[in-house]
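Lab meeting, item 3. Inverse folding demo.
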């Protein structure tokens, strides 16, 4: 089964072809990602209107490249998948409408994929991970801990009540004049900084749930920076190191809570899976390994290019859904908000743990 996947929910214009050869078994035939970072950099974040226009300009070419690289014709496709949300609505409309046009023209089934579901299922494409597993998704737009029990069968164990973790990294970088996207720049500065210099808070730590809150940490950092301004290079490095250490401590505490909730509600996870751009952070990755071992399971960390937004994850999620007969009508609506517990699941096939 070969599926074309289209991703346009944020600032990556992406298309890919994936072949599904069996349960949790697939192959990426092509995976083309065009990042819009340069277009948004001067604004210090993604500008929705600029993103939507850039998707319109680039998408046809990106899809044509993905088809050519996979040496695939439209006639050979089994389905066309697009991220139908959640995300910046202008971009979502561009990708979903394009997918509808291809599906209609070539008489192929359409699969409207939830972007978060695509992140959640990537580990099955890259590592053949079996259900159920615990997902830690941390990107610029999302921070969630999920129990992934089957296709369309997710239990949200924790989320952020304000900023996403990647967003907190980006805002920290902006405050310190480091540029965009902030995560890799803050991580680099942190390497030569003193993480113990500033006593930043660890919001939500010790609570019995698995929710995050990052906005207080960001404010505390700003106050510390204001106290010692103007900042020297070493001050910036020390602030970055102290911030990153606070995030790492929060991730340890919150994810411990999430894994405990997983055990109580679902059982033993087959893996702890990470996804999203923040999972590229080495300090965070190190503690994820530790947490997985503590929970008696393994860490599955897909390669960074498949952790961040891409078309292959959309194509794969489309293939997983298509294999279960889960397709969508051509009038399916794009959604800016789309919580994972509102994703349709197969009624004929019980989830892996019933
Ligand atoms: O998944 P992603 O590429 O796009 C979405 O947000 O959907 O994630 C991008 C986010 C940005 O906020 C970026 O600053 C963050 O991931 N990020 C990192 C690192 N690399 C990317 N955060 C911390 N450390 C990193 N090394
Ligand atoms: Zn994403």
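The presenter then showed the designed sequence:
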């Amino acid at each position: 089964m070969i599926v074309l996947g289209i991703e346009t929910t944020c600032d990556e214009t992406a298309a890919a072809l994936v072949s599904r050869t069996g349960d949790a078994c697939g192959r990426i035939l092509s995976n083309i990602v065009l990042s819009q970072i340069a277009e948004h950099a001067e604004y210090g974040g993604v500008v929705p209107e600029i993103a939507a226009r850039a998707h319109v300009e680039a998408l046809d070419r990106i899809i044509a490249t993905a088809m050519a690289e996979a040496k695939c014709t439209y006639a050979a496709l089994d389905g066309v998948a697009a991220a139908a949300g959640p995300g910046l609505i202008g971009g979502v409309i561009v990708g979903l409408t394009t997918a509808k046009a291809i599906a209609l023209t070539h008489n192929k089934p359409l699969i409207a994929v939830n972007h978060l579901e695509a992140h959640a299922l990537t580990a099955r494409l890259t590592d053949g991970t079996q259900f159920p597993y615990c997902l830690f998704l941390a990107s610029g737009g999302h921070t969630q801990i999920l129990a992934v029990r089957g296709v369309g069968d997710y239990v949200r164990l924790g989320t952020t009540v304000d900023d996403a973790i990647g967003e907190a990294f980006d805002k920290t970088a902006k405050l310190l004049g480091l540029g965009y996207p902030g995560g890799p720049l803050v991580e680099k500065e942190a390497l030569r900084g003193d993480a113990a210099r500033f006593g930043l808070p660890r919001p939500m730590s010790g609570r019995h749930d698995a929710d995050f809150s990052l906005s207080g940490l960001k404010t505390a950092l700003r106050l510390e920076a204001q106290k010692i301004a103007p900042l020297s290079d070493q001050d910036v490095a020390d602030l970055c190191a102290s911030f990153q250490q606070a995030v790492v401590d929060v991730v340890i505490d919150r994810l411990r809570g999430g894994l405990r909730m997983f055990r109580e509600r679902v059982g033993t996870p087959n893996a702890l899976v990470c996804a999203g751009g923040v999972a590229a952070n080495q300090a965070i990755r190190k503690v994820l390994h530790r947490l997985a071992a503590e929970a008696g399971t393994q860490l599955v960390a897909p390669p960074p290019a498949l952790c961040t937004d891409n078309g292959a994850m959309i194509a794969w999620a489309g293939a997983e859904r298509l294999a279960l007969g889960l397709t969508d009508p051509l009038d399916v609506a794009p959604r800016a908000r789309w919580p994972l517990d509102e994703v349709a699941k197969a009624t004929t096939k019980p989830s892996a743990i019933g």
